[in-house]
C-alpha cells in the first residue's frame, strides 16, 4: 500500500532513528536456535473457529490501530491491505497504480515543472534545500536551473521565476466505498486535510512542502509543490483517500480514538471489517462493492486474522491447518531451518524475500576524536582505515557469501551496493568485491602492510602505511550486539579476515549500550573500528544521503545522523545532491545515481553484508501468496486461494 499517508516521505532524522528501531525490533533474529527435528511445544492456543469459505491469516502481533495517520504497526498494515486496495502498490522496486488510471510521468505531461513568478516573502525551497521565505541574499535556482552552476543570489527586487512541480492524478471512476458511496478525488483531498491538521499525528514533511492539493474534477486531483521543491517520488504524491462522508463529523483529534476510524475503518478494498475481538482475532467479510468483484475477487467470503506472537505456536497452528498463512509479522526469521524441513515434508510452503533492510559493516574512517582536526595525537586511534584500498581489502576478505549460505540458509544475497541489484537504478558496473583473500592481501601490501614474521596465522604489520606507526598490528575491534545471527556472522568474518592477515577482536554490547545517543554510544558516538548495524529505506529512492557529510553525527547536530563512519567526500556529496535534484524520466536521474554508486563502491565507507529476510509461510494447499521485497505481504490478498481453487 502506498500513498502519502503511508510514510514514503519522512525527514532524514527518521532514518537515523530507524537504525535504533531496526536494532531493537529486527535484530533479535537468531536469538533462538531453530529446532533441528521437531516443533518446540508451544504455549496453549485456543483456535478461532474458521467459517466455511474463509481464509485464516495469523499475525505476530495485534494491530495497534487501523487509523492510517497514527503509525499503524506491521500487523495493522497487513490488515489495511485487505480493507484498502492500493491506492498505489510498490512491487519489485516499482510503483503500480491500483485505483489510478495510470501513474503520472514527465513524458506524458501529467507531471511537469511550471515556471511561476515569485517575489520577496514567497515561501520557497532555496538552492540548499531549505524551506524559507524568499528574501535578499537567498540562494535560488531560477526556472530551468537544475544544477548548482546556475544558482543565483536573490537581490530582493528583481523579477524572478522558479520552477514549481505540478502533478495530476487521474482516478478510476468505478471505485466505491464499501457502503456503496462513490470514492472521489475529494476523499483524497480530505485525507490531505486530515494529515495537515495540527492535531493529526505523523510527519508533516510533505505537508509543509505542498503549496496546494485540490480536486479539479470528481476523478482528478492535483498536487502543487512549493516552488523550488523537486520530489523524485512525485508518483506517490497522492494521499490515500479517507471517507469524508463518514469521518468528517469528527474532529481530527478525535479520529484516532473512535472505532469508526481506528477499529473498523471503511475502505474500498476486497474486504470490510465485521468484528475485532481484542487479544484474539479479527473477522473481515467480502466487500460487495469491490471493483474487481466481476472478475471473481476476492476468493473468500471471510478473512480471519488471528494474533499469535510465538513463532513456534504459529507454526504448530499452520501445520494443524488452523492458520492458512503466517504473516511476516510472526517473525519467523529464527525458524528458517524448521520451515524448510516442513516444506520438504509437503506440510507447508515457506516464502522468503529480501527485505528493504541491509545489514551493514561500518568502517570507522573518522572517529569522533578526529573532529578537532588533530589525528593520531592525544590518544587518537591511528588512521588505519584512511586508505580506500584498505577498505576494499577488508571487503575482499569478508566471506559474506558463506554467511548468506549458512547463517541465512541461502535465502538472502550479498548486496553489491546500497541499491539492490534488481532495482531499476542499480549500476551493474560497480565493483562486486567477492571473497578473494589473495586479491585482498595484494591490496594491503600495496598500502604498506607486510607479513614480517612469515606466519600467516598472525596479523600483518605496518611498514610504510601513511599515518600509521611502523610495527602497528592490523588488528581491528568488531562491535555488535549479542544476537546469535550476528555472533555467527562475526565468527565467519573473523576466520575469513584472518586469511588476509587481519586480526579481529569481537566485542558484543547490549543494544541499549551500542545504540545509545552520541557521544556515549559506540555507533552514533563514532568510536569504533568496525561495527555491525542495520538500516532500512522506507522509499524506493536509493538512499545515497545516508553517507553524505551532512549526515555525520557530531556535537553540532546533537549526534543525529546516518553517516556513522564519518565519511566525507565532496564528489560523493555533489553526486548525491544532483541525484536528489533530478526526476524520474530525466537522463540525469539515472546518470547521477550511477555516479553515486561508482564513488561509493570505490571509497567503501561501509560494507553491505546481506539483506535482512522477510519470512512467511502458508499451507501447502494455498496459492497466489507471493512475497515481494518492496510490497505489503498482502498486496494481492484478493487473489489468495486454496484447495480446489488453486487447480482451476
Summarize the structure.
Helices cover 22% and strands 21% of the residues. The chain is α+β, with helices and mostly antiparallel strands. Helix 10 runs antiparallel to helix 12 (484-498).
Helices and strands in order, then pairings?
Elements: H1 12-25, E1 54-59, H2 74-83, E2 88-91, E3 94-97, E4 111-118, E5 123-125, E6 131-133, E7 139-140, E8 152-153, E9 160-170, H3 185-196, H4 205-208, E10 210-217, E11 220-225, H5 244-247, H6 259-262, E12 271-277, E13 281-286, E14 302-307, H7 311-319, E15 325-326, H8 336-344, E16 348-363, H9 388-396, H10 400-407, H11 437-447, E17 449-450, E18 461-462, E19 475-480, H12 484-498, E20 503-508, H13 511-514, E21 530-536, H14 570-581, H15 587-603, E22 606-619, E23 622-623, E24 641-642
Parallel strand pairs: 1-14, 1-15, 19-20, 19-21
Antiparallel strand pairs: 2-3, 4-9, 5-6, 7-8, 9-11, 10-11, 12-13, 13-14, 15-22, 16-21, 16-22, 17-18, 23-24
Helix pairs in contact: 9-11, 10-12, 14-15
Amino acid at each position: 500500500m502506498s500513498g502519502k499517508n503511508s510514510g514514503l516521505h519522512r525527514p532524514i532524522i527518521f532514518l537515523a532513528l530507524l537504525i535504533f528501531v531496526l536494532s531493537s525490533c529486527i535484530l533479535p533474529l537468531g536469538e533462538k536456535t531453530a529446532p533441528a527435528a521437531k516443533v518446540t511445544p508451544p504455549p496453549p492456543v485456543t483456535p478461532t473457529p474458521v467459517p466455511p469459505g474463509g481464509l485464516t491469516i495469523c499475525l505476530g502481533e495485534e494491530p495497534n490501530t487501523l487509523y492510517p495517520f497514527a503509525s499503524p504497526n506491521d500487523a495493522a498494515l497487513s490488515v489495511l491491505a485487505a480493507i484498502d486496495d492500493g491506492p498505489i502498490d510498490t512491487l519489485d522496486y516499482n510503483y503500480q497504480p491500483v485505483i489510478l488510471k495510470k501513474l503520472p510521468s514527465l513524458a506524458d505531461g501529467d507531471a511537469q515543472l511550471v515556471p511561476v513568478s515569485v517575489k520577496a516573502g514567497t515561501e520557497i525551497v532555496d538552492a540548499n534545500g531549505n524551506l524559507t521565505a524568499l528574501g535578499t541574499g537567498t540562494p535560488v535556482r531560477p526556472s530551468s536551473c537544475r544544477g548548482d552552476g546556475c544558482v543565483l543570489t536573490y537581490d530582493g527586487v528583481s523579477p524572478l521565476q522558479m520552477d514549481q512541480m505540478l502533478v495530476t492524478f487521474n482516478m478510476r471512476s468505478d471505485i466505491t466505498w464499501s457502503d456503496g458511496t462513490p470514492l472521489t478525488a475529494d476523499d483524497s483531498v480530505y485525507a490531505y486535510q486530515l494529515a495537515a491538521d495540527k492535531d493529526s499525528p505523523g510527519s508533516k514533511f510533505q505537508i509543509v512542502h505542498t503549496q496546494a492539493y485540490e480536486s479539479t474534477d470528481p476523478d482528478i486531483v492535483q498536487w502543487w509543490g512549493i516552488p523550488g521543491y523537486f520530489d523524485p517520488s512525485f508518483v506517490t504524491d497522492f494521499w490515500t483517500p479517507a471517507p469524508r462522508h463518514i469521518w468528517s463529523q469528527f474532529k481530527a483529534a478525535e479520529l484516532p480514538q473512535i472505532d469508526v476510524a481506528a477499529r473498523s475503518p471503511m475502505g474500498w478494498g476486497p474486504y470490510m471489517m465485521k468484528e475485532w475481538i481484542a487479544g484474539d482475532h479479527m473477522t473481515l467479510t467480502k466487500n460487495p462493492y469491490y471493483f474487481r468483484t466481476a472478475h471473481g475477487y476476492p476468493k473468500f467470503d471471510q478473512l480471519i486474522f488471528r494474533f499469535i506472537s510465538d513463532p513456534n505456536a504459529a507454526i504448530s497452528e499452520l501445520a494443524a491447518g488452523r492458520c492458512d498463512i503466517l504473516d511476516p509479522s510472526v517473525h519467523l526469521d529464527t525458524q528458517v531451518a524448521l520451515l524448510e524441513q516442513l516444506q520438504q515434508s509437503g506440510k507447508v510452503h515457506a516464502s522468503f524475500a529480501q527485505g528493504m533492510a541491509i545489514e551493514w559493516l561500518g568502517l570507522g574512517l573518522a572517529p569522533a576524536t578526529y573532529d578537532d582536526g588533530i589525528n593520531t595525537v592525544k590518544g587518537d586511534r591511528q588512521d588505519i582505515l584512511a586508505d580506500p584500498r584498505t577498505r576494499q581489502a577488508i571487503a575482499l576478505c569478508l566471506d559474506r557469501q558463506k554467511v548468506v549460505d549458512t547463517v541465512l540458509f541461502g535465502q538472502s544475497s550479498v548486496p553489491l551496493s546500497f541499491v539492490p541489484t534488481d532495482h531499476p537504478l542499480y549500476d551493474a558496473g560497480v565493483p562486486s568485491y567477492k571473497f578473494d583473500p589473495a586479491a585482498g592481501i595484494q591490496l594491503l601490501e600495496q598500502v604498506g602492510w607486510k607479513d614480517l614474521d612469515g606466519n600467516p596465522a598472525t596479523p600483518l604489520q605496518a611498514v610504510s602505511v601513511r599515518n600509521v606507526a611502523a610495527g602497528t598490528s592490523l588488528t581491528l575491534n568488531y562491535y555488535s550486539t549479542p544476537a546469535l545471527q550476528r555472533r555467527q556472522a562475526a565468527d565467519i568474518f573473523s576466520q575469513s579476515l584472518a586469511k588476509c592477515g587481519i586480526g579481529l577482536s569481537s566485542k558484543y554490547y547490549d543494544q541499549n549500550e551500542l545504540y545509545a545517543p552520541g557521544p556515549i554510544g559506540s555507533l552514533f558516538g563514532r568510536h569504533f573500528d568496525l561495527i555491525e548495524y542495520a538500516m532500512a529505506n522506507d522509499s524506493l529512492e536509493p538512499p545515497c544521503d545516508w553517507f553524505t557529510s551532512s549526515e555525520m553525527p557530531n556535537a553540532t547536530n546533537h549526534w543525529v545522523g546516518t553517516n556513522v563512519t564519518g565519511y566525507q567526500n565532496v564528489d560523493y556529496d555533489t553526486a548525491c545532491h544532483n541525484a536528489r535534484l533530478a526526476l524520474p524520466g530525466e537522463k540525469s536521474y539515472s546518470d547521477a545515481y550511477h555516479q553515486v554508486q561508482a564513488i561509493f563502491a570505490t571509497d567503501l565507507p561501509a560494507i553491505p553484508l546481506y539483506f535482512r529476510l522477510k519470512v512467511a509461510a502458508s499451507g501447502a494447499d494455498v496459492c497466489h501468496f507471493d512475497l515481494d521485497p518492496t510490497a505489503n505481504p498482502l498486496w494481492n490478498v484478493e487473489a489468495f486461494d486454496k484447495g480446489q481453487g488453486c487447480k482451476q
